[in-house]
Amino acid sequence: MILTEINDAGTRLPELVRAAENGEDIVLARNGTPSVRLVAIPSFSSSRDLTPDPTLRPVLAAGYDPAEPLSMEEWPSCLQ
Questions:
Q1: Cα–Cα distance measured from residue 60 to residue 55, given in angstroms and rounded to the nearest whole number
Q2: Which tens digit of pLDDT belongs to each residue from 14-65?
């Protein structure tokens, strides 16, 4: 475990971040009293499948033109 004062952490931040990324427990103290723990975030796995799900594709009504404004009959009743 690395314990360092908050005031000193600013000048040592790159070193402390590297240590946290390597699994070291980093604790920042204020006036000798532990106050904050520096924790690494698990890295993003690039092996995740980011292909869009085709079942989530919106289906628009035939003849719908998104550039055309809605008529009063087409608005939901709660908004009229």
A1: 14
A2: 999 999 989 999 999 999 999 999 998 877 655 677 788 888 888 888 888 8
pTM for the predicted model, two decimal places: 0.52
Question: What DSSP letter does each residue of 24-44 carry, written as one string?
Answer: --EEEEETTEEEEEE-PPPPP
Neighbours of 26 (CB within 10 A): 20
> How far apart (Å, rounded) are the C-alpha atoms in residues 8 and 13?
9
Q: Nearest Cα to 25, choosing from 36, 14, 33?
A: 36
Contact between residue 29 and residue 3 where contact means Cβ atoms under 8 Å apart: yes
End-to-end Cα separation, the chain, in angstroms: 63
Which tokens go with 6? 């908050």
Structure tokens at 38: 């520096």
